[in-house]
Design brief:
The complex is a heterodimer of chains A (about 425) and B (about 350). Chain A has about 425 residues and is an alpha+beta fold. Helices cover about 20% and strands about 35% of the residues of chain A. The radius of gyration of chain A is 23 Å and the shape is globular. The two termini of chain A are about 45 Å apart. About 0% of the residues of chain A have low confidence. The termini of chain B are far apart. In chain B, α1 crosses α2 and α6 runs antiparallel to α7. A 6-stranded mixed sheet of chain B has the order 3-2-1-4-6-5, with helices on both faces. Chain B has a 4-stranded antiparallel sheet with strand order 8-7-9-10, with no helix packed on it. Helices cover about 30% and strands about 15% of the residues of chain B. The longest helix of chain B has 19 residues. Chain B has 2 domains: about 230 residues, HUPs (Rossmann fold), CATH 3.40.50.620; about 80 residues, no CATH class. At the A-B interface, α2, β2, β3, α4 and β8 of A face α1 and α2 of B. The complex binds guanosine-5'-diphosphate (GDP) and magnesium ion. The site of magnesium ion has 5 residues of chain A, from α1.
Chain lengths: ~425, ~350
């Protein structure tokens, strides 16, 4: 049985990200003959002698024409040990928007640098965004190592600088790995390179296959946002009433004491159902249907939480916003807040700080948050929400900010003060 | 169990409020049969049920979550259902998402008329077994009344767009589930799970909403709709492994069988309502199967001896051609064929 690892890649233009992703697909035999034919043909048309693997991933026509990557793309590859979903996030324009999107579901981030340039502005920013979003592990791929003659010293300097930066952002030393690679030639991507005898760590792919991903479910409190009330009223199930949702954190078992929020009623789980039968236990990520002991009033938008460690229910909270829209945010803005399965009206009452990812510092009281800015705000909502601190339970601390008139997603929201976890604000 | 007495909205009822004037609409919106196994003994938690550690369990949970979000937030969702492999998987997951209640959506088939009999037979049987409601939009009707014109090459896949959009408008569908997967083609790699379409069904890759965590934003203006792709993160191998694990029945043409075929445009085609071999095309009897099912005029069979799911999985693993490249002529027309059709409102 193979497990699933969701990863996000980030790097700045021309560091070789498309080539690296193409290389991963190619070396795991996830590229099939007709795709490779098309790429080989296109490469020959451009006068190249070997297939340009970056063409495997630059999918939209405008990208192929301009040689750029304009949007997050998802790639799939698998080895006998693991299946991978890779969010390929472009590095130049709108980088925060794309990195935030890719990072929101990632269990690991792969950052790319060009060995000739080392850690640059963009690398520091990407790492900060990944840290903010709580991506638990980072890999630095020191690419184009062939262009620095596979020099150990160059690699060591870059790896140390990056590790120092990552630990300043809160990563443990064991959560960060640097690998010298050549995406173009394949060194240390899937096969260990003879050109880097001084490197003793795993290849990039071996690391992706081995790195632990499953969170310890006992660490996080149980949370399930109710998506839908299942009430068949059929002959076979005349009285069945179940609350369907995907467990956002923790585990649940029959007999568990739970509380329904926001109204605060307590009850007991009698059954954890799926179409395949009832479960003795289910954990984070599982879509289940809970049957409860008491006749409590529950609808879509409610949260079922462990009674012993329930979140606060509040209509005022502090949050970090990653602003994703071209229209800037100003204090007093009226917005919609989508948290779990509930959407409520809200207002941004204060812009308290804007994060300067570059210097890892904050600017107090900014007048606006513009596209790609990350800031700390105060929010008020029309109805109270059962929110966790993002750092405590990611999914129940996450929300969307939506434009009430256009319906567009304006920002990714993280409840609490995750910026201070970065050592700032 | 208790029955809610407060009269508050809950969404667990089958929607039967679609226009019923179309002669092909089945109106028996009740589920009589239990789709899944009859008994539901408690089972111990094993790795196979753990979404954190098992690939297929994670994909299943993700898809179920998507179905339930749409049921909770949209007024009139519909599942595109052709009887093909991906749409059959889609329906299977929908049934699991709402068990033990019936699926709260109707199905829509945009029928090119260029069908394989086995697939239509299968489609109708599945619909009847689960007591579902099927809306059929026949491309032929659009051709007959002049809204569409047959193409010189006789292929009808590109003609599906107009009947699809007309049906969406006619029935007021606001969410349309499709079986598209991001691994199928490079342009799809960037498609969102919730893909907003304008009143003309068009997709604008530059105007996509960022999709964060598992929080989907389905807000749309009147006249717009959202295409929803619960299988976005599945690969062809995942689909087949899941079909094996869940013992999902498929139309027989997905498995190796003897068939009279002729070679055209690098594919084995078969005779059907779309026409047959030209004089210079030799008909041969071969052991073949289909990897995708679409308009028979441009869906090729592949030579195969795979008669079981396990055989097919082995074949897919060893395969050197992607599904679409192997068997869909329309996708090979141009490098950007899919991107163009998506912009036009095709899936
Ligand atoms: N020598 C060398 N060139 C590389 C390597 N990786 C990528 N390149 C080249 O760097 C250029 C930019 O690569 P690309 O993958 O498009 O970069 P992206 O903008 O980060 O996606 C291309 O000309 C690649 O062939 C590498 O490991 N070694
Ligand atoms: Mg690129």
């Amino acid at each position: 049985m193979s497990s699933l690892l969701r990863l996000a890649t980030a790097g700045s233009v021309d560091d070789g990200k498309s080539t690296l992703v193409g290389r991963l697909l190619y070396d795991t035999k996830s590229v099939l003959a007709d795709q490779l034919d098309a790429v080989t043909r296109a490469s020959v048309d451009r006068g190249a002698s070997t297939p340009d693997l970056s063409l495997l991933v630059d999918g939209l026509r405008s990208e192929r024409e301009q040689g750029i990557t304009i949007d997050v793309a998802y790639r799939y590859f698998a080895t006998p040990k693991r299946s991978f979903v890779l969010a390929d996030t472009p590095g130049h324009v709108q980088y925060t928007r794309n990195t935030v999107t890719g990072a929101s579901t990632a269990q690991l981030g792969v950052l790319l640098v060009d060995a000739r340039n080392g850690v640059i502005e963009q690398t520091r920013r990407h790492a900060a965004v990944l840290a903010l979003l709580g991506v638990p592990r980072l890999v630095l791929a020191v690419n184009k190592i062939d262009l620095v003659d596979y020099d150990e010293g160059t690699f060591e300097v870059i790896a140390k600088e990056f590790t120092d930066h990552a630990t300043a952002l809160g990563y443990g030393v064991g959560d960060v790995l640097s690998v010298p690679v050549s995406a173009l030639h394949g060194d240390n991507v899937a096969t260990r390179s003879d050109n880097t005898p001084w490197y003793t760590g795993p290849t990039l792919l071996a690391h992706l296959e081995e790195v632990p991903v499953a969170p310890d479910p006992h660490d996080e409190p149980f949370r399930l946002p109710v998506q839908y009330v299942i009430r068949p009223r059929t002959e076979q199930f005349p009285d069945y009433r179940g609350y369907a949702g995907q467990i956002s954190s923790g585990t649940v078992r029959p007999g568990d004491e739970v509380v329904v929020l926001p109204n605060g009623q307590r009850t007991t789980v009698t059954s954890v159902d799926t179409a395949d039968g009832s479960l003795e236990q289910a954990g984070s990520g599982a879509s289940v249907t809970l049957v409860l002991a008491d006749d409590v009033d529950i609808a879509r938008g409610d949260l079922i939480a462990a009674a012993a460690s329930a979140p606060d229910v509040t209509d005022e909270f502090t949050a970090a916003l990653c602003w994703l829209a071209s229209k800037p945010l100003k204090p007093g803005a009226r917005v919609l807040v989508k948290h779990g399965t509930k959407t409520v009206q809200g207002m941004v009452t204060e812009l308290s700080a804007r994060f300067d990812e570059q210097n890892l510092s904050v600017e107090d009281g900014p007048e606006t948050l513009a596209l790609n800015d990350i800031g700390r705000v105060e929010l008020r909502t029309a109805e109270p929400l059962p929110v966790d601190d993002y750092g405590h339970a990611h999914r129940n601390g996450a929300f969307l900010v939506i434009d009430p008139s256009s319906g567009d997603t304006l920002a990714a929201g993280l409840v609490g003060a995750p910026l201070s976890a970065l050592g700032v604000g | 169990m208790q029955v809610r007495t407060d009269g508050r909205e809950d969404c667990s009822q089958v929607r039967t409020d679609g226009p019923e004037d179309c002669s092909q609409v089945r109106t028996d919106g009740t589920n009589r049969k239990e789709p899944m196994t009859e008994t539901h003994p408690p089972v111990a938690l094993d790795a196979g049920l753990d979404a954190a550690t098992d690939n297929l369990a994670a994909l299943e949970s993700e898809a179920i979550h998507i179905f339930r979000e749409v049921a909770g937030e949209f007024d009139r969702p519909v599942i595109l259902f052709s009887g093909g492999k991906d749409s059959t998987l889609l329906l299977h997951l929908a049934i699991k998402a709402f068990w033990p209640a019936p699926v709260p959506f109707p199905l829509l088939h945009v029928d090119t008329g260029h069908n394989f009999d086995e697939v239509i037979e299968f489609r109708d049987r599945v619909v009847a077994e689960h007591g579902l409601r099927l809306v059929v939009a026949k491309v032929q009707d659009w051709i007959d009344d002049g809204r569409l014109e047959e193409r010189p090459d006789g292929t009808r896949n590109p003609l599906q767009t107009v009947p699809l959009l007309d049906s969406i408008t006619e029935h007021g569908f606001d969410a349309v589930f499709g079986g598209g997967r991001r691994d199928e083609e490079r342009a799809r790699a960037k498609e969102r799970i919730f893909s907003l379409r304008n009143a003309f069904g068009q997709w604008d890759p530059r105007r996509q909403r960022p999709e964060l965590w598992n929080l989907y934003n389905g807000r749309h203006k009147p006249g717009e709709h959202v295409r929803v792709f619960p299988l976005s993160n599945w690969t062809e191998a995942d689909v087949w492994n899941y079909i094996a694990k869940e013992k999902i029945e498929l139309p027989s043409i997905y498995y190796a069988h003897e068939r009279d075929v002729y070679w055209r445009d690098g594919m084995w085609l078969t005779e059907g309502p779309w026409g047959g071999p030209r004089d210079d095309e030799e008909v041969v009897r071969k052991l073949v199967r289909y990897r995708t099912v679409g308009d028979g005029s441009c869906t090729g069979a592949v030579e195969s001896t795979a008669t079981t799911v396990a055989d097919v999985i082995a074949e897919v693993q060893a395969s050197r051609l992607t599904e679409r490249g192997a068997t869909r002529a329309d996708d090979r027309l141009s490098e950007a064929a899919m991107e163009d059709r998506k912009r036009e409102g095709y899936f």
